[in-house]
Every structure is written in structure tokens, then in C-alpha cells.
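Fill-in record for DNA-binding SARP family transcriptional activator.
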Amino acid sequence: MATSRLLQALWREEPPPTARKIVQNAISGLRRTLAEPDGDRSKLLVTHAPGYVLRADPATIDNCEFQELARTGRAALAAGQWDEADRHLRQALALWKGPALADLVEDGYDWPELTALQNARHSVLENRMDAALAAGRHLDVIGELEAVVSTDPLRERLCRQLMLALYRSGRQAEALRAFRRTRAALVEQLGLDPGPELRELERAILDHDPSLVSGGTAIRMASRGTTAPPPPGGAETAEPSAPAAAPGTPPDTAAGPGRTAGGSPDRPEDEHKRVTAVFVRVDTSDCSVPPEVLDRLLQQVRSTVRQQTCLYGGRNHGSMGPVILSLFGTAQTQEDDVLRAVRMALDVAAYAEQGVRLRVAVSSGDALVLRAPATEADDEPVDVAGRFMETGLGLLLEAAPGVVRVCDTTRQACAEHFGFATTGARPGGHDVTVALRPALASRTHLPFVQRDRELEQLRWWVEEVRRSRRPHLVTVLGVAGIGKSRLMHELRRDVTGRPGMGCLVGCNRALGPKEPYTALAGVVRAYLGTKDDDPAPEQNGRLDAAVTDLVGTGPISAQLADALRPLLCAATGDEPGRHALADPERRQAVFTAWRRFVEELAVREPLLIILEDLHRTDDALLEFVGDLTENVGSLPLLVVVTARPELVNRSPYWASGRRNATTMSLEPLSRTGIEALLSSVARPGSGAHGAESYATLTEQSGGNPLFALEYARMLDGAADDDPPRPACVRPRRSGAEPPVPPRVHGIISARLDTLPAAEKSLLYDASLFGSPFYELELAALSDRDPEEIQECLRSLERREFLQRCRLGPELGSVEYDFVHKLVGAVAYSRMSHARRAEKHRRAAQWLADHSNRPLTLLVHHCRQAVGHTRDANLSVEDISAHVCDILIGAGQQAKRRRVPGAARYCYRSALEFCATGDPRWEVLRRRLYEDAKSPV
């Protein structure tokens, strides 16, 4: 707990000058109170910047026990274990002996935490009532429900439960009277009508709907990764510590799992993401076995699919009968999620045991990823909503056994990696036919632009290592697409063209889990002259011959070859090889053998080793490569590694300097460089229109060559035989800015997912304000401490997401901007429409309270709040009325400041959101008329 938060909680107004001393004395007294008779009182309550930390055993805190019982009860409720759920939830409620921290409430303290605790108690009570109603104990809970509803008539869920209990007890008239009482309270106190669920229940009671007696059951795919169905008689269970949402708040920003209105960084948020789904259907038409044998076969298939999904970095979403679903891109986006999914699907489709064949389909598309707080550290519940799921199920019906069928979007993303055959009656379906070698990622046919200085530095190090015969490590850092691979290609071509210097290259593929150390294997294969898909016997034979040539015959030759063999086995997918590398002892033996292999090569002649994309490797390989030049002795060995900037945050080696090591960063190309690159790919005859379009793309690319080329490719369109291109994610502002190409969006989205939850949430908030923005504006969109916001901003600056523009207009304020404006566009696109609407509403409210901000920005946020509420298919009546009040209030403030033009602008804008029959309509028209008549 930060000291500043303690001061704010104790003194809402200006704290006294001795406030910090008072807090220190109170902390000292607390330590004496909490200390055991013979214990050290400093161990429980410790000073830890920027405040204090209470290290208490959760078993001694009744709130922790309450939360654990509530969690167990909710889990039982979701599993349909009504009696078990009722028992645990009763035990949780029995811990309460009255209002939380009643002594503080009596002294006038009204902390948000107290409200959260009370809401948690109500949530558990509502869940217990759901369990009791589902178990048929409606007669037992009527009395308790009547007492609670009379005390708190605004909680609609409790009213629904009371109405249902009364109706099932044959007291239909009393159920309708309970509805009328709640409606009267809502109208009188809030000016609101009951929600649709309550009105629907009233209508069902009037119609004597048969489902009210037995309750409904929702069927979903059985999995830990799916959210639980709503319990009978009520809405979905709410997170116990979440506060109730304000009236008019869009539903998915209300309190609930992962949907806090303030965007709490402690909970994952619902996000728009590009997701790929792999559907697997077990075909047992040729297998005639008893049901218990069939069950065992299904379990074997599910286990195989689960293992392959985890191997390729996906998520097992669950199964229903013979259909199994795996998802890629839900938890953490990878640039190659589609490629991972298709390769996993091909491995699964090859399954054929005991007459079982598998039909497999892959579908990709935009989805809303629905999240809830994790029940286990590595098993966060996730559900997705998107049209591509329906497309995938349709493809699954057409898929032939042993064949992978994909949609148009998946084919477009993998066109360079696989061959496809378009078959079937349904349009948009393609069968994967053959795996192709992808084109060189660095696109070496394009001009080498504005990297001569970096290439000259690398040439200098080549000559220096050759001259001094001492090892050196050069790290080349740069964001995705900045030109690292192309620079390495030019360096390799330059070195191989000179005599007396060897060059070996290894690249770390993004598919990592199945091929953990492909960079090391690539170096060995480059020397052997083999390819990764060559037969294992051929690779082993060449390895034995090469090792014998290096070290001669004898025990050392056999030891070295045997230690290096798991690298080649892992690269070709051999199971023993992969298991050998998973064992720390065997892995260390492989590292030692590889280092000896390189040393033997460097003894013969100076050697350049290039290891690309080191950020994709695990920590063990990072440590090994970082120490390589320190451990090889005095040999002419130059190791050049490429990586993205996040490598510095992962490994302490790259965060601190060492001898025999150099780091260089690749900066964005200048406008001239991007124009030269685009002109080389411009279609003949594009003319002035093409030049104007490329000028726009130059600005959009931000100096990133890959981004510029992807924009140009999107602008020129696909080839005639290509399928339709998937929808791109468009920036939030209207205008002539082109949409973000899918590949660029994927790269930035994957980088966003490397951020901690708090920093990513703050970046989402910043995307609402565009560029530039102030930290004060971010504080308006969440309830976070200013110190926490400042720390997140500093971290985002270190990670090169944000940059400081200049000092702000107020003392201590700083103006920030996105390093690349596409980061803001992608971050904004990933928020759900309902969440954007709530954020814009908050921003508008804050801007209305700060008259020094532009009114055009205020109106923009008001329009966006209403527009995104409409895009979320929610009622805009409440939000329109709210933004209308905001604009009227801003107009009144402008009038008091004697700025009539600003007042008229606010009133005219308010008319956009005011219904014709609204009394405020005439008031606004009259004010505009009076202001027009009055002299300025």
C-alpha cells in the first residue's frame, strides 16, 4: 500500500503537515499490536517502497476464507452441484457478523473497498439463492429474500429470484407485486425502468411460461476453458469483489469477470483479436466397437490433440462428443498463429490408429475474446465469439478424413507456406495439399536502403576479429520488420565473397516448442550441407564424417557426434531428440558439444556465426549465447545475433555491458528511404495517383520497411488467383488514412501481448486520446494511483511503445506520444465496442470538468461513446441522455465564463443526442435562440 494512498484515505481534503509522521506512528503501533509475544514484529508489517506491505497468513484473514468459500461455491454452481454450492456459500455468508468494518463507517469513512466488500456479500447471497432455487428449495428462501429485497430494492437480480420463488410456490400475485415495488423504487430513486431480464420475467409470469417451473439449461462445450452457464433463475454469476455498474453503463463494462468499468489492471479484459480455430472430428465409421472401447479411443484422440496443441503454442478449448476445438491467438497473440494452427492440424490429420480417422478444419477471423479471472495460474478461462467459428464448423462437415480444410482467410495467411486445392460445393473451402518452402523473409530482390553505416560497422568487426584473433559478440536490436534479416543477408554475402573467413547462419523459428534450438541446429546443418527435411540417416552420416574430419578418430569424436545428434533429431521431429533437449543435463551436454564444435571450426579459420531472432528462444539458450564469447578462449570468432528490443527486458546479460560485446540498434528509415523502397515496387503506369498513395503510405509506415511494403501490397491488391483479402482493422478516426494491413496488425498485436496487464490496459486508455496525451487524462479513465500510472508510463517508454514529447502545461506533467502511431490504432481496435463506449464516456466527463481542453475533443468523445454503444448493439437511450447532460453542463460553464460561442457549440452538439420529445429539446432550442439574439 503506497503511503500516498494511506494519506488520501485518512484525509480526503488537505492532509496536515505532520500527516506522514502520524502514519508512521500508527504503523509502529500496529506492529506492536500484531507482534506475537516472542516474535519479531517487523516481519508482519514491513516498510517497502513506496509504502508498506502486510505479510499476513491468508488463513488468519476472514475475508480470504470468505473469498475461498465463495470461489468453491461458484465452481460447484457452475458444475451443476446445487447442494454442494449451497453448503459452501452458506458457510461463506456465515462469516459475516454485520456490515464490514462497521466502526469505520460510524466514524464517517466511506472507502470504495467497503462498498466492494458489501457487493461481494450480495453477490454470494445471490449465488446461494440460485443454488437453492435450482435444488427446488424455493419455499425455504422466500422469507430471506423478502427481507433482503425490502432492505435493498434496487438489486434486480434478488428481485428476480424472489419473483421466481413466489411463482413456484403458487403465489403469482405476490410475485407481480414484488416486481411493481422494485419498478417503483427504480423510477423514484434513479429515474430508470427495470432491466430487460426483469421485464421478461414479468411477461413470462403473466404468460405462465412452463420453463419457469423447471428452469432452463444451457449446453456448452465441456471444458475448464469455457465460462459457466447461467444458473437457473438468474443471470451469470458476478465476481464477488466487483462494484455494481452505474445506470446506463454498457453491460460488458459492468461489474463481472474481466469486465470492470474502470479497467482494473488486475483482471484481463475482453479484447478483439485475430483468432484461429482448429476443429477436429473423430470419424469412427470404419470402426465397429463397443461404447466403452469407443470412449477409450476418443480419450486417446483428445490426448493426442491436446499434446499437439500445446506443442504448437495453442490452447485446448474443450470437446463435445466427437468434436474437439483448439484455439490459437486467444491468450497471447503470435505473429504466426495461423501457420502454427495449420501445421498442428496437419500433424493431427495424420493420426490413424485402430480404424479411427480424423477430419480437420481450420478457420481464422476477427473475434471477441471473452475472459474471466484465472482459476488456475496457467488455465485462464477463455471463450470467443466470431463468425469464423461458424465457418469452421461448415468446413468440418466437408473435410475428408486425413485432409485439412481451411477457409479463405487461413489460405491467404499461409499462401507462401502451403499448396492448396479448392474443392467442395461450399465456396471458400480449400484443402491443404503440400508444404512449400517460404520465400526469403528479407526480400533480397529489393534495394538495400540506408543501412550502409550499420553494414560498415559489422564489416569492421569482421576485420577486427580476424586481425586480433579474439572473440566478439555483436547484438543487433530492432523492432519487427525494421530490416535485421536483410542486414544479415548482406553481411553474409559480403563475408562469403571473401577468402579466409567462414560464415554459418542459424535462425530461430517462431514455432519454437517443437524445434527448441533451431538456431544451433541450423549452424550445424549449414556446415554439414544438409537441410532440415533431409532423412535422419543422411544427416547422422554427414555429422559423423564432419566430426571425424574436425577432431579425428577416437573417443572424443564419438562423444562429440553423439552429443550433437539430438540437435538434428529435434529439428527433424524425432521424439528421443526432443526429450533429450528437455532434460537440463542433456541440454547442457548439447551446449558444451556445440561450443566445442564451433571452437574447432574457429581454430581452422576465422568464423562468423549469425544467430537470428534470438528473442524467440528460451532463457537457457539466451544464457548460453550470452556467455559464448567469454568461454571460447582466444579464437577468431565473431557472433552476431539479431533480436527485438524486448530481449533486453528478458535477460540480464543484454541489460548490462560485458567485455567483448557490442550492441547496435536499427532506427527507422527516413522518408527518403521509404520512398525509394516503395518506388521499387510501384506498378508501371501508376502515375500521379500512385505517387500520392505511396506518399500517404510513407507517413503511415513510420519508417518501418516491412510495414511500408505491406501497405503497398494491400494498396496494389491481391493477384487475380488469390482469394479475397481478409478485412483489415481500420483506425478509429474517419478520414483518408488507409486500414492497417493484417500482417502489420498481427506483429503489433503480438508485441502488445508481451506487456504486463497493467501496462497494456494503460496503453489501451492512451489510444483513446490519440497523440499526444497527458498522464492526467489517463487517470480519468481508471481508478489507478497516479504513482502507478507514472511507473507504467516510464516502463512503456523503456519498452519503446511511448516517447516523451515535451513537458506539459502544468508543473510535473509530461506530454507523451506513441513511438509509432499504428501502436495506438491497433491498441484501440482491440478493445470491445462496449468498453470503448464506457472509456469515451469517462473521457468526456473528465474533459467537461476541465474547461482548458478543446471542446471539439469533448464532442468527439461524446459521439464516440454513443456510436460504439450502437456498434455493440446496445440501447443508446441512456448513454445519449448522459452525454447530452455533459454537453449542457459544458455549455453552462462556457456561458458563466462569458464565452457565448463555446456555449452555443455545446448546445448545438447536445441537440444531436436529445430526442425530439425530450423536454430538454425545447430548452436547448430556446437557449440557442436567446444566445443568437443577445449581443456578443
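KEY FINDING: The first helix runs from residue 3 to 10.
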